[in-house]
Amino acid sequence: MNQLETNRLKLRQWLPSDYAPFAELNADPKVMEYFPNTLSETESNAYAKKMETIISNQDWGFWAVELKTTNSFIGFVGLHQADVELPFSPCVEIGWRLSKKYWNNGYATEAARAALKFAFEILNLKEVVSFTSLKNQRSEAVMQRLNMINTNQNFQHPKLPIGHQLREHVLYKITS
Q1: For the chain, how big is the Rg over CA atoms in Å?
Q2: How many CB atoms lie within 10 A of CB 32?
Q3: Which H or E run includes 149?
Q4: End-to-end distance of the chain based on CA atoms, in angstroms?
Q5: Closest C-alpha to 81, from 47, 119, 45
Q6: Exposed, middle or buried, 120 (CB in 10 Å: 0-12/13-18/19+)?
């Protein structure tokens, strides 16, 4: 199992103890502001199990992120093969979702840098993409701090209904 480490964080396989704090962050309206809805505990657990299974099967994915100083689960960061047909598929995306109490500490950027290093040095990927709702300026700022480039190729996310306020997404990419 590939566990990544930074100065302050561990990116690792999911543990049963991660499920409850993950459900809590997925139920937080502020954390989920740029998603269609918050997740119930059942939905959140199913999502965590899916991410755990993907990592077990391919040795990488959306890793659980642990703060080294406290061994606390703070969210996820990692890489994912998009499982929906997007205008730029096939692709590997980088993504993150952290508990609100851990925002504004640089954790998403720090963990994402480790994930990108893994993508380019271990997986030998040529390109990694990231996308978010046009309204999600916080995530877009992380993409910019990662030196990702705005492709200026906004797209309509196919999982959201036509006319949905979050349907238009920005697309960033970075190459090796």
Answers
A1: 15
A2: 15
A3: strand 149-150
A4: 23
A5: 119
A6: middle
pLDDT in tens, 84-95: 889 999 999 999
The one-letter code for the residue type at 89 is: S
8 Å CB contact between 80 and 95 = yes
pTM over 0.90: yes
The per-residue pLDDT for 83 is 79
User: For 132, phi and psi rounded to 5 degrees?
Assistant: -160, 165
Angle, CA of 144, 18 and 71, to the nearest 5°: 75
Which domains does the chain show, CATH number per domain? 4-175 (3.40.630.30)
Beta-carbon count within 10 A of 65 CB = 31
Rounded to whole angstroms, how far apart are CA atoms 27 and 135?
20
- Give the distance from CA 28 to its chain's centroid: 16
User: Do 57 and 120 touch, CB atoms closer than 8 A?
Assistant: no
